[in-house]
Amino acid sequence: MRRSELNRWLAERPDAQLRFVLPDGTLVPAHFHVTEVARVDRRFIDCGGTRRTRSACMLQVWVADDREHRLATGKLAGIVHMAQDLLGDDDLEVEVEYERGVISQYPLIGAERQEGLVLFRLGLKHTECLAPDRCGVPVAATAAAKPGCCGPGCC
After folding, report:
1. How large is the average pLDDT for residues 77-81?
2. For residues 3 and 94, is the Cβ–Cβ distance under 8 A?
3. Buried b (16+ CB within 10 A) or exposed e, 61-83
4. E-assigned strand segments in 22-92
5. For residues 45 and 70, is the Cβ–Cβ distance under 8 A?
């Protein structure tokens, strides 16, 4: 989901409560906080030697002991708006960073409305070979190899 779509979901029902649904179907506890809104820019070289860049809007979600805390969509919209100068005008993909044993990053892949609630669905990120032609790996093999290495000579 891109930032523009997130903003639409947040604006449609500014008094609705938010919940995040992890890829395994469990919910992030209802009393979570969004502690950061960031623009994350990565500059890297893939295993075939190609320079690449990726940028995302990252929401950091944290759970404290204040079990009565609830975050409404309007409040999150305000927090995202405060980060506008950092995020720029790019319509970035949105990811959520959350710690459950380990810190993980999840792409925001969808949303749905329920009674007084907006559920944001989180997906999984995977590693992959970005240069299968240079590594000698069939394209079908790179799609199936999660996680894995792209082959001899590049990893």
Report:
1. 97
2. yes
3. bebeeeeeeebbbeebbebbeeb
4. 32-45, 51-63
5. no
Query: Residue type for 68, please?
Result: E
55 pLDDT higher than 50: yes
> What are the beta bridge partners of residue 96?
59, 106
Q: What span, in angstroms and rounded, lies between the C-alpha atoms of 64 and 61?
A: 10
Give the Cα separation of 92 and 57 in Å (integer): 6
Domain ranges of the chain: 3-124, 128-155
Q: Which amino acid, 95?
A: E
Partners of 122 in beta bridges: 108
15 near 76, Cβ under 8 Å?
no
